[in-house]
């Protein structure tokens, strides 16, 4: 999946279904594919601009590492929020 040779297209829908359920799978998958396409357009642009300015790829790698760390943090926050919502939903269903 990391090499992006089609593994994401088979794994992401299952991952989305596990996280959010299947009700909004199509919409969420569309958002993910849009973000993926945007990254495919913006990533090479960032690499080219940084390389033109520094004549080195080192800073580019640090920029992408920082972006990956931010994405990881966002992912962890979303997972924690999903767990919180599920817990609250279960508590509400028990009291009703």
UniProtKB/TrEMBL annotation:
Ranges where the Major facilitator superfamily (MFS) profile domain occurs: 1-83
TM region positions: 28-47, 59-78
Subcellular location: Cell membrane
Any one annotated GO CC term: plasma membrane
Keywords: Membrane, Transmembrane, Transmembrane helix, Transport
Gene3D superfamilies: MFS general substrate transporter like domains
Matches recorded under SUPFAM superfamilies: MFS general substrate transporter
A GO term for molecular function: transmembrane transporter activity
Membrane topology: Multi-pass membrane protein
PROSITE patterns, per database record: MFS
InterPro entries, A to Z: MFS_dom (IPR020846), MFS_trans_sf (IPR036259)
Protein name (record): Nitrate/nitrite transporter NarK
Natural source organism: Nosocomiicoccus ampullae
